[in-house]
Amino acid sequence: MSLLNTAAGNTKIMKSQKGTEIRIASLSLMPDSTICPSSTLAQCFKPCLKFAGRGIMSNVAGGRQSKSDYWHNDQAGFLKQLRQEIRNFIVLCNKQNKQAAFRLNTISDISWERYGIPQDFPGAIFYDYTKSANRLHKLPSNYELIFSYSGAPKYQAQVQRALKTQAPIAVVFRGHVPAGKYFLGREIVDGDASDLKNLKYRGKIVGLKLKGNNKTQKTRSPFVVEPGAAQDCIELAA
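User: That's the sequence. What structure does it adopt?
Assistant: Structure tokens below.
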């Protein structure tokens, strides 16, 4: 069983690398409360992207679950194999005169820096989304994160911590992204085109359109924001 998808099977991965000199390898695990430790606080587990796109296919879901089981049951073996696959992909990219990049949390939130993964490959790019504001500090120079918002009350300490940084903050909007307006005092930009571009939106809200099946589209999770909550300008305190 291979861990990395190196064929840009994920739609966002394909869009992100298109027209660039970068090739992206990704890792998709089946999320759970251990792999996504803040999902309970953020109330985002039900509308998770695990139900979007190819995730509804039984073989895809089964493959993701097998990888998650591998992680839980043999972490040392998993990390050894992951490092080898990363090395192989870097060698391939070098032969193709491409820059190797990795998104290891497509629908998970593992702190890979704790395991030395990005540190072991300083010439490669690593990036992810996270719901842990603590991860935004003291990252390796080749690892960048976008914080993921939720309006859940018990998650607001994380949101406030993230707002004290210039890290891009991803917000999922229902229906459409109100680009050009403001949310949380930050300008909203449309982030559905490219994750690599989203990394450059320092101090901004990266708006993402809600995706997934019909059940997901109807969710009332505070993870999803209504476009009407956006403001036309920054409201200054009196």
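The two ends are 59 Å apart (CA to CA).
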